[in-house]
Amino acid sequence: MARGKLRIYLGAAPGVGKTYAMLAEAHRRIERGTDCVVAFVEHHGRPRTEVMLHGLEQVPRRRLEYRGAVFGEMDVDAVLRRAPAVALVDELAHTNVPGSRNAKRWQDVAELLAAGIDVISTVNIQHLESLGDVVESITGVRQRETVPDEVVRRADQIELVDMSPQALRRRMAHGNIYQPDKVDAALSNYFRPGNLTALRELALLWVADRVDEYLNEYRSEHRVSRIWGSRERIVVGLTGGPEGRTLIRRAARLAEKGAGGEVLAVYISRSDGLTSASPKELAVQRTLVEDLGGTFHHVVGDDIPAALLDFARGVNATQIVLGSSRRKAWQYVFGPGVGATVARDSGPDLDVHIVTHEEVAKGRGLPVARGGRLGRARILWGWAVGLAGPAVLAVLLNAVDLGLANDMLLFLAVTVAAALLGGLLPALASAAFGSLLLNYFYTPPLHRLTIADPKNIVAIAIFFGVGMAVASVVDLAARRTHQAARLRAESEILSFLAGNVLRGETGLEELLERVRETFAMESAALLERESDVAPWTCAGRAGLGPPLERPEDADVDMPVGDHMALALTGRVLPAADRRVLAAFAAQAAVVLDRRRLQEEADQARALAEGNRIRTALLAAVSHDLRTPLAGIKAAVSSLRSDDVAWSEEDQAELLEGIEEGADRLDHLVGNLLDMSRLQTGTVTPLIREIDVDEVVPMALGGVPEGSVDLEVPETLPMVAVDPGLLERSVANLVENAVKYSPRGRRVLVSASAIADRVEVRVVDRGPGVPDEAKDRIFEPFQRYGDAPRGAGVGLGLAVARGFAEAMGGTLNAEDTPGGGLTMVLSLRAAGSHAESPGTGTDITEPERQAL
To answer: What are phi and psi for residue 709, nearest 5 degrees?
Structure first.
């Protein structure tokens, strides 16, 4: 069955019209004859949205009871049985009520897609998992309901539902989003113009990045090499010289002038070595460009202008920034230079900026990478000099008689020049051609290819031999230089690579991206399989090339052991490059192994922590739970004994002991269960608005009467909490405070409002806790000081802090002035608390309650 397609309407904030646009799309599809149903849509009491539901088939919701309340969730099984062509599922980031088929709604959507059902859904930008910290820094609200970015990125279509902050605030003022009594508070808090503008920018930039990914995939699939200036991308060409910092800063300023500008710094090293750059300077420049928000790339290429232009066109750049040449005037006789060549060959779609700097015309401050293979232009010049030089020289010497010895020296000079420029073959051709011209024009008998004087034969032979020797020496020097430089390049690349890997600075994807850039490939992938007959799977990949099912499908296949291979697509590499590629492949295997070992280590740590918890639980059961059981058993045995006639007072005392022991057991077991829930991550708070004075008095039922003074004003703002979790937290705090308070000294429980938070303080006059132990007392199974074994298993404070953090609050310990300990439970007021699981809406608590 073909997988269904996912379409997402993305908005910057509640109320921009995502659900309305989704319902409008459903009506359009139904008019075209598409089988479309509403799997789950929440109109939030908005009249216009509710009207759009008319005429659409709605799958009945599944009713679930949780903590005394009934909630409606999407019935995944019913939708699958109905099997429509298209299903509308609102609020992709929603957390389902406990007892649902899946924990998250996006997991429900994944099941529908797997069943071949197309899904249309909605999500706000603040619910993307990667943007949680950014959104909290902007709005002060931590989003508790999130959806992984990859789920949204994999959508077949993402449509931005945009609205200006002013228009959205007008909609809010007209009552089209919230109820009238919530409008004023919402406009002055969450829906402030600054908040909405920042969220809108996040949404626009995120969608722009996604569109950019689509564009790169399209250009790669269709082999588009021409630059499309969809956004400003500025490539900075670095040489490793000190002027690079100036170029990077200049490029950053250019990028700031255009929205969404991007800076890509690239250093192109010759395949014959990294001799023209300082690794230390390159590292400084890399740090600088990354600090300015750009990226650094390292590419290998013998023809630097061509490699730079290929890189720029490959990343769809619009501008190139280069520095003015450091060469002196006389050095231009060897060519126009990189800057002039890039400007000449850039074409109409690339702007080239030549930036002046302090190193202009001061000469190369770094060693020049000569050697290597003789370039094409140099070889052509060698052939031109080797063939045309003797002919031109013969014409000139026909007009002047210098004698045979001088003529030979001049022809030998031309041969040496050809050897220096073009190497062995042009020099041999020059020597042979020059010998023929010397014999024909200048050796008696003239104008004949015979030699009368044997001495002239020796002279011409020596001339030819010297020419061959010089050519051989030049060619050998070039080859040796190339080999030495290449080995140096390989050693520096491998040293840099090994250093990064050993320091743990390179992940598998980053390493594969470096492989791709180093060898100028389209994609790189690490494939593996479990056995010789098992199918290949991709452990990691980089680049935009087509996915590979087998290493044999790639242009380059580098085996790593028996069941792993590094596969590259783009071009066939020469044999000389495979040695470095083999090192990259081995390092990739090491990185993969290290990542898996890290995952196993994390699992081992989790198991060790679980074992520690279980060991502590067993210790608690062995003594702390046995003690009240022993007391209860002794009291019951005494009451049942026929040997003693108990008075009414004695019976009452024994029964009271039984009741106290049972209460103590109930409390211990409750804390053990709560700690188990916290350790396994199954605590899902059901956030509701409630007054503190409704919850705190209920938490005092387990302490002796008259041991607590309560000061909770009725004028405090409401808090957004789970009432059950708050009650348990306060109860544990009060019980702990009463346990350590001196006889006759009451515990004070007070509450006050500070800014956007409500603080509940539990104050005792006990011995207190030193500063170094204040955090340790909140760890499980920790009891401070000389607390007897019967004082509990040390879970009360750990459970209290765990529940507080689950509700978005904090719990800390402070010294009580005059002696003692104060527990400060800080809770978010209803106007500033993000939505918690189980609320069943696409908006946060502060949004719904006007923050």
So the answer is: -100, 130
